[in-house]
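A reminder before we start the practical. When you read a complex entry, don't treat the lines as separate problems. The point of joint prediction is that each chain is placed relative to the others, so the output describes one connected object in space. Small molecules and nucleic acid strands, if listed, are placed in the same frame. In the example below there are two entries. Take a minute to note the order of the lines before looking further.
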Amino acid sequence: MTIKQQIFSLLVSICVFMFTIDLVRKKRVREEYSLLWLATSLTMIILIFKYEWLVGLTSLIGAVLPTTTLFLGSILFLLILSVQFSIKISKLTDQVKDLVQENALLRYEFEKSRNKPEERCDDKGKNPEP
Amino acid sequence: MADTLVLIPAFNEADGIATVIDSIHKAVPDADILVVNDGSRDETASRAKAAGAVVLNHAFNMGYGVTIQTGYKYAYAHGYEYLAQIDGDGQHDPAFIAELLAPVKNGDVDFAIGSRFLWFDSYRPSFTRRLGILFFRKLVTVIIGRSITDPTSGFQAFNRSVMKFFSTDIFPCDYPDADMLITLNLAGFRIRELPVRMFANVSGKTMHSGIKPLYYMFKMCLSILVTLLRNRQFYRRQM
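Here is the predicted structure of the whole assembly.
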């Protein structure tokens, strides 16, 4: 890996890392969703300094060039991210469903109980006690 | 309070909902009627209320499956013993509610489903719809080992045990049809199909328009597959 490549990769990784930390700091991303981004950027930083690890990993998976390993890693990262979002969206959909149903049932009970005292007042108005 | 609840899921059914409720009142005068309004933008809720039904309102449109499950949860929470379900568009003839309820009330079955194909003068669905129904009819019949001619029918009646079962997360809220029947069978509920009269949909509204039939086929096949892959114990735990 040339020094130019190292500097560029390091800058990108540090930017991703800092940007993610900043999003968590501003409460725009929850900690649980930052985990994958932080782990990926940290792995990138480690691999920049331990290039031989990347070469070793490349031979382990049978790839020819270390860049192939990096691309594979990126695709895997995006895949895991998408699966994580699909799981979360499914859970949120179920929660929204439960909330809408609860809301409908409670709204009915609320309106029923709210109408009851009015009915009693009306009755009193119609039949005033002597 | 009656021991039977008639559930009508409704979405933008203002034109016909009062007529449907009146017909149900005449057909089963002892039953309470519940309309679950699935975020309609018209006067469905007010007209249903004026016609004498209890009305639950979804804050926004959630789809047919979620709507009927809201009704099941209401029925179970309010102690109803039996529930009959009928569409709000007037396609199902309310005169058959009592016939669907009869074997459930006798304790012969837990779940009765109405079939348009067993009644001589029910309407015939479109060719593509018939193809879909035929496919799922064969599939369900093979899997549960009993003939079911109309697995997509929403005209049903069942008892409190099924109500409880359907109120859990096991209920397939995304188009509950053939997979629901297979789930019920796996859970050990007794199912029976009965002839009912169904009319053609005069409003022209359908849940299956655009690319939805394709998604429906995919979803239903996947749902049936995962239903079969689950352990029978999984369904027992939900009861």
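Discuss with your neighbour: The CA atoms of residues 114 and 194 of chain B lie 5 Å apart. What might explain this?
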